From TrEMBL:
Keywords: Cell membrane, Hydrolase, Membrane, Transmembrane, Transmembrane helix. The keyword Transmembrane applies. Residues 59-167 form the Phosphatidic acid phosphatase type 2/haloperoxidase domain. It comes from Marinomonas communis. It is found in: Cell membrane. The keyword Cell membrane applies. This is undecaprenyl-diphosphate phosphatase.
Amino acid sequence: MNILNSIHNMDVTTFYWLMARKRRQLLTRVSRIVSISADGPLYVLLGLSFWALGYPTWTLIIAVGFALERLLYLVLKRSFKRNRPADILDDFTSFIRPSDQFSFPSGHTSGAFFMAYCLSEWFPEFYVSFYSWSVMVGMSRIFLGVHFPTDTAMGALLGTSCAMLAFEVFA
């Protein structure tokens, strides 16, 4: 348990350091927009678009891979039950209302990295853009005050791993 306390203390320190740098209103507004861009319904629209354009394998990879990612995400959320920053840090209020109670892992970040991996496989010339966006999603979740840095790091690992597995099985 000592190592978990050390990780948590480092996480809280990093979180406060990042919060001290986000006092600008513009960064908060941009973070909201970036965060919304990683909402799940947009991924459904993307999958349906690939289906309509005649790419059923791509649709299958997105559907099955994202279903696996969501399942593992929910298992981890319910297993770890890590409280969000606003629930455990004194005198801190997040800038948005989170969609659920617990913070570990970040679902927005895992979904973003899942999609960045998939899209980079199909459109490799844009991989820098896709991964830049997914990193911005993770950072936006921290800047909005709903996740600690390790929540987003685990989200990135989860999303990437699920995408890799989906490609291994279906591509």
